[in-house]
Amino acid sequence: MSFKDSESTAVESHPSWIQAYIDSPEKQRLLYRRTLIIVVLSQIFGGAGLAAGVTVGALLAQDMLGTDSFAGIPVALITLGSAVAALLVGRLSQRFGRRFGLATGFLTGGIGAIGVIISATTNNIFLLFASLLIYGAGTATNLQARYAGTDLAMPTQRATAISIAMVSTTFGAVAGPNLVEVMGKFAATIGVPTLAGPFILSAAAFILAGLVLLILLRPDPFTVAKAIAEVKEANNRKHIDTSVNLEENNKPLIVVGATVMVLTQIVMVAIMTMTPIHMGHHGHSLREVGLVIGFHIGGMYLPSLVTGILVDKIGRTAMAIAAGATLLLAGFLAAFAPVDSMPILIIALTLLGVGWNFGLISGTTLIVDATNPSTRAKTQGSVDVLIALVGASGGALSGMVLAHSSYTTLSLIGGILSLLLIPVVVWSRSKQKNA
């Protein structure tokens, strides 16, 4: 069989509905726009779902365990659960498409939130820990959804597409912490402990996000993107080795993208996790905690649209350096903020979120740039596993640092650690010049 015959067979093997997208750039463009709309809708719900664990997870464990030393365990368990979920969601997405992978992750997270409510009601600490692990699937999926918008995006649109998915999370993520008090009162009226109230919102939000994707994300953008990539490879006579060679040549970019996201994650998680405990020690109310965390989550997601444009326009590495500088400032502000100063705490935690935003979007875009659709979702899932595991370590260790030292020490360590982003970026630039 000649090459032309084998190429023709490869192209004709696609179902007619996929072939229609392969043959029509206009249909690809319309599917790209439709995918973004659906991802935006799911992320609004997903953002509300993740807020509970961030805001009251540590407080719930502190209340049930009666000690601060293990207050970081909930975030550690959530991020550990998200690590496992990131791997599974990535593998499911690679094999069955984004729709099935993301919907499964969100629905699993909703089940975990229900388990947290039951554990708080029955005062069962073991069920709480198990449920937080499962709840982590929702937080992992909320992050994995940012990739869905990039599947059919042009290279110059990728960071912007990631940003659109992330900025939509803001609506739910900012509302969630500010509904802590309301949900707590609602929980009390139905016989559920006040601190478990936000998880009622999480359960409903994650389940709705999963159903939106399961029902509406058709046709699957990742399935279409893989088919388009296969045809392009056949046309360029690269076949199976194309994706392998691409990722082999771009390993430095994958390493840099992963490192940027890992460092920003550990700094953000460590400081954010202990802020509610720190505030509680100095007499701040649950409403004030919710307000600070609400601004923090707003900083994590709201700048996304501008960040995406900047990453596409001025470059991935420049924004990675900006992430390090912003996190350094956030760490020093948090360390030296007067304990009774809400405005300075709000500024510090907002900057902490903004620095994380810069790092996540620049790092994510580097990963997308360096991968091919035939292996992309699996690689993305593996990188997110590493991010989650590091976040779990940061969450667990932050409680120990606070218990045996101080919030000031924790914040200073986080700020200084963020400076490691600079040599990472310098190394990546030297690699690119030598390539």
Describe the structure.
This protein is mainly α and 435 residues long. It has a single domain (8-434), classed as Up-down Bundle (Growth Hormone, Chain: A). The chain is built from 19 helices and no strands. It has helices at residues 3-12, 16-23, 25-65, 73-96, 98-122, 125-148, 158-178, 180-189, 197-216, 221-235, 241-249, 251-281, 286-301, 304-314, 316-336, 342-369, 376-404, 407-417, 421-434. Helix 7 (158-178) packs antiparallel against helix 13 (286-301). The model is unreliable at 1-12 and 238-243 (pLDDT under 50).
Spell out the key features of this protein:
85% helix; 0% strand; mainly alpha; Growth Hormone, Chain: A; 435 residues; disordered N terminus; globular
CATH homologous superfamily, by name?
MFS general substrate transporter like domains
Overall CATH architecture: Up-down Bundle
Morphology: globular
- Distance separating the two termini: 37 Å
Q: Structural class of the secondary elements?
A: mainly alpha
Give a short account of the largest sheet. Answer: none
Mean pLDDT across the residues is 83
In CATH, the topology is named Growth Hormone, Chain: A
Radius of gyration: 22 Å
In the CATH scheme, the class would be Mainly Alpha
User: How big a fraction of the residues is strand?
Assistant: under 5%
How many separate domains make up the residues?
A: 1
Alpha plus pi helix count: 19
